[in-house]
Amino acid sequence: MKLKGFSKKxxxxxxxxxxxxxxxxxxQLILLKQGKGFFHIGAAGHExxxxxxxxSFKPGFDYAYPYYRDQAFCLGWGMESRDHLLSFxxxxxxxxxxxxxxxxxxxxxxxxxxSQSSVTGTQFLQATGAGLALLKNSEHAVVYVSAGEGTxxxxxxxxxxxxxxRDKYPVIFHIQNNHYAISVPIEHQTAGASVxxxxxxxxxxxxxNVDGTNFFETYMAFNKAVDRARKGKGPSLIVSDVVRLLPxxxxxxxxxxxxxxxxxxxxxxxxxxxxxNTCIEAGIAKEEDFELLQSQVKEQIxxxxxxx
Length: 308
Hints:
Blueprint: H1 8-33, H2 47-54, E1 63-65, H3 71-77, H4 81-88, H5 122-136, E2 143-148, H6 155-167, E3 171-177, E4 180-181, E5 184-185, H7 186-189, H8 195-198, E6 206-211, H9 215-230, E7 236-241, H10 260-267, H11 271-282, H12 287-307
Helix pairs in contact: 1-3, 1-4, 1-11, 1-12, 2-3, 2-9, 5-6
């Protein structure tokens, strides 16, 4: 049996990588408390949106400009858990930067993952420039670029949308809306509290507003956007509504500005739980299948951390 075109093996591989990202967060926080790392930004709650995006592209052919919550995306694109741990521990063999970048600043030359700056938003115009180059070279590759909703308040975002839309560059803009720009809620940050609304008016720009905790809904949007870009029809903006299950970073305590009720509401939308429940209800897998994958991934992360 298949669920929206996915085989059981594919479903298990998707879930495995989503759990891999979640356990990587857990392990890195443990290493941080042990004094083996110095900083961490979590991807917990963003896994489904990231995986849905990654599986819609051609890694190594297409180009990716991810942001710091794109851990699951980078795993889906082809990076390994060991790569992330080497980066977190600032090891010389770290493929992102040889241990020179901050953690969660992803990069991988063979996979065409371009490392970002800690100055948020700079990736928008870099990705747009890549789209221009691809168009001028008559290549059919597509560019992925992402950020949180808070970064859309910066001019780089609208400059990139305007430039890409004007000349139909093959760029997919992914805004992962977890409703908080560090400690500032979206209603205090964005006019109308909607990135989707403020992006209206750009010709040639397709827009999608999806539940980013729902892998299948988000995957459909990315497939349409990427196909459209390859056909030369221009850029797309995908706004995925996600949840932030960890504080902004290891330097933050979200309990100071978020109520327990709000945090619990987010936990009820956990993309990993939603994914496994959807597959179980569809009859494509059993609860034991997911429990087995969890135990296997946990053992792998423990071994990879020791290796790193």
